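Milestone M4 deliverable, item 7.
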Amino acid sequence: MLHKGYLPALARMSVFVKCVVATLVFLTVYLFSSLVVFAQLVPDGMLADSASLLSAAAAAFWVWRKLGDAGSGILTTALSWAVVAGALGFCGGFFGPLIFTPEANQGPLLGIFISGPLGFIGGAIGGLVYALWRGSASVR
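Output delivered:
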């Protein structure tokens, strides 16, 4: 039985993991939306930054709510993990070469064809394993 103010070790770790993942999602969505989407669509810098911050905050809030959601089914959990890991893999593979080797003109293709899809597949497998583990742990 949980008392007010008491979090078991697994729940505390879950909150820490949720914080780390939500922060990574916030940063990647902010970078992607400010450098790729809103910088091209909105000429005003202040408006583009505000839109980027708002979209990054919305994505981080969605991830925070979805991670560890007890009411989620196996498919929903696996798909949520796949989307988050695929987005992180895509952004890392897309922006990494742009930042570290800007002279490489085919660098962003890494995110499009390799790290994004591999992140999606890895996230789906990880989410499936987590959902099955969570389901078997709740049966005990």
